[in-house]
Please model this.
Amino acid sequence: MKIEHIDQKAFPPTLFGAHGAAWEVDLPKARALAGETEDSDSTVALWIVYAPWANAFWSYYLIGGIHLRPSKALPTPKIMLPGATHEILVFALDPEAVPDTVDTFKIRKLTPANFVGQWRVEVRPNPVDQDRAAAAKVRVTVEEILAGVLSPDSDFIHDWIKRFSASNLKGGR
Model:
């Protein structure tokens, strides 16, 4: 598969599928580049996904998972789903900008997000295990995109609601 824009030799994909490729973002490196720490960033998983089949106008997407725990360094999270522990965010990326997670971590998202939804991670008792379980669910979601089972395009929001929730949609649950 020919992947547009990203140099696969300099930045090899973490995952390949029949319908795309994906790069798992090195969170400690991305935080360092952004001047953040684990305490000032709630991200538990972050992926750049190449899925040219999903939309005629853009091929790259950002798929991220965050925890919803309160922290002194972060704003209080807005819980839209009672008991939610994590949230997934899906953004199409600007087709005019090559995603860079190697040197500068410059990624230009298109707004609004394609999807944002909260869910409950049932793993107990500690947050580390919850975050690992949430990161694993985000990875499975990325694998579904690469298999062509799940589209990151906003036209397929009902498929995302089935996996997560309609918590962040007006009138959603």
Q: What stands out?
A: Residues 15-163 form one domain.
